[in-house]
Amino acid sequence: MAPDDWEDWLRLTATDGVGAVTARRLLAAFGLPAHIFAQPASALAEVVGPALAARLRATPAGWDALRQHTRQWLADPQHHLIALGDTRYPAPLLTTPDPPALLHVVGDAAALSAPRALAVVGSRNPTPQGAENARAFAQALAAEGVVIVSGLAAGIDAAAHEGALAAGGVTVAVVGTGVDRVYPARHRALAHRIAAAGCVVSEYPLGTPPLAPHFPRRNRLIAGLTQGTLVVEAALGSGSLITAELATHMGREVFAIPGSIHSPQSRGCHALIRQGAKLVETAEHIREELTGVWGPPALTAPAAAADGDAGTDPAEDPVLAALGHDPTPFDLLQARCGWDTPQLQAHLLALELKGVVQRLPGGRLQRVARA
């Protein structure tokens, strides 16, 4: 995105009546948002009808305040606007039916394109065992480099985020508000920790309050960013079942943890299992089902790894293999490798001294190209 293009993208998505599907229709017809706004009303009306064409030709309500607020928000280097067509746009979302035209991200946007990601969702009022299951599954998988994606809600969502953080892993919160607002408010500290270890993302403009219709819609992003969805506990009619249904329609795997036949919080999971969801009792069951998509678990550090053990061939050095070719934050590299901090830092220093890894501004690491 060019430096000033974000204003046109923001204005497009802030126009009343322009959702993800309509935005893509306009982009397909006219190209970039600046070209859309340059069209006469008659041309716009042929694509979206006269009423929406008139709104596109007008300035959205509260536009000046939103633009100024967003400009100030973007001054923080951890704040990002990512539009369709941007190289940072999450690749998994591009395979979904209606990817958002614009994403607001706090934290490391690279976490949104993780090749190994699992959605963990469930009840806002789980049983103690349900919350512990969410935490344990998330912690076990995050320790192997799987990015845990959830919705920052109370209950299972929060437990899943906490489990990933406890493993020193990466987690993503998809929210139904503006990213500058935290709902529920008691998760403010949790949201900051998530942004530091991964990111918080929303398709809604800054300042958007927690409106009920937004949460079912954000569920499609939770499902779309991952290769599978785990439902831990859910009553019949739960929003988590919407996420599971969306995941199925997107061709993603759906997993469910069984529970007591007497518990209302288990009935949604049992219904999913009857409909074909994979019954899982351990994190290993998920690994087995997704091995073909994820590949083997991230390698753990050898017990006696030392500075001199660093190699220069990615086929032989697990850290170089995990680093790949793109600039990578230390936390994400650590999540992929599963090494503890002192061990990984020592190994990276050895790689730097050998001239095969360099540190970039912002604490990112990158492999040095060799002739």
UniProtKB/TrEMBL annotation:
Pfam families: DNA_processg_A, WHD_DprA. Residues 304-363 form the DprA winged helix domain. GO terms for biological process: DNA-mediated transformation. Residues 81-290 form the Smf/DprA SLOG domain. Signal peptide: none annotated. Belongs to the DprA/Smf family. PANTHER family: PROTEIN SMF. NCBIfam families: dprA. This is DNA processing protein DprA. It comes from Tepidimonas thermarum. The lineage of its organism: Bacteria, Pseudomonadati, Pseudomonadota, Betaproteobacteria, Burkholderiales.
